[in-house]
């Protein structure tokens, strides 16, 4: 597999828009605030870090790395923070130059962004980076294929026979492009695979409240709830694995 960087259009405020998906990587109303509202608050973070020995987050759509860096900043502020693993997937990884331009919009994250950029050299398949003492595992390729290579220590409440490749996932960030424009990342089989890797009581959050996405999540085994969206968006979705 060869790596193909995304074709980008840069909107006002240096908001990157993927031409192939006709969608932006983060909200023009504020990417940092959006991540905090949808993905951190939607998963009960950073409060859930407290009292854990380790915590694992997984994400569909690494994009600019904004979700990862925002999470990392919140995690660093917890006095007794757990060991953190962040697992993510990206089919079209940005070049270092594209990443640097997008992340320059968030000066409060710049020290962490600099660490990420220094280590950024993605290869097809699984890449493991250590950023600010957290483990970033990024799969470059089709998430529907790469997720089959992951095994957590828990599957349907029981230990797997094979050696785990990741800890059980405590929180999911479902952040693919719009379901209407990128349905592959909201596929029923992919979401079922995600649920199988999720710890009991694990959660999810996503900006979309599309009916067919909710039904796919429920079929995968998550309990789903609609809640207030970001920046005037009426609804988003959170979920929990019983």
Automatic annotation (TrEMBL):
Signal peptide: none annotated. Residues 107-241 form the MnmC-like methyltransferase domain. One of its GO terms (molecular function) is tRNA (5-methylaminomethyl-2-thiouridylate)(34)-methyltransferase activity. SUPFAM superfamilies: S-adenosyl-L-methionine-dependent methyltransferases (SSF53335). Coiled coil: none annotated. Gene3D superfamilies: Vaccinia Virus protein VP39. NCBIfam families: tRNA_MNMC2 (NF033855). This is MnmC-like methyltransferase domain-containing protein.
């Amino acid at each position: 597999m060869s790596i193909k960087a995304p074709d980008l259009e840069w909107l006002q405020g240096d908001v990157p828009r993927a031409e192939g998906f006709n969608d932006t990587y983060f909200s023009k109303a504020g990417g940092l605030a959006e991540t905090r509202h949808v993905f951190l608050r939607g998963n009960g973070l950073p409060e859930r870090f407290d009292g854990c020995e380790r915590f694992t987050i997984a994400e569909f759509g690494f994009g600019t790395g904004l979700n990862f860096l925002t999470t990392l900043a919140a995690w660093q502020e917890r006095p007794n923070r757990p060991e953190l693993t962040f697992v993510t997937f990206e089919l079209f990884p940005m070049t270092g130059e594209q990443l640097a331009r997008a992340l320059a919009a968030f000066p409060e994250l710049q020290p962490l962004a600099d660490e990420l950029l220094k280590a950024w050299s993605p290869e097809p398949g699984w890449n493991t980076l250590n950023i600010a003492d957290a483990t970033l595992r990024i799969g470059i390729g089709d998430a529907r294929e790469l997720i089959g290579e992951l095994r957590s220590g828990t599957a349907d409440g029981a230990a797997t026979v094979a050696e785990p490749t990741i800890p059980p996932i405590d929180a999911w960030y479902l952040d693919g492009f719009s379901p209407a424009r990128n349905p592959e990342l909201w596929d029923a089989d992919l979401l079922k695979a995600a649920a199988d890797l999720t710890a009991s009581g694990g959660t999810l959050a996503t900006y979309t409240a599309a009916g067919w996405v909710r039904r796919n999540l429920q079929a995968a085994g998550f309990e789903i709830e609609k809640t207030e969206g970001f920046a005037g968006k009426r609804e988003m979705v959170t979920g929990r694995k019983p």
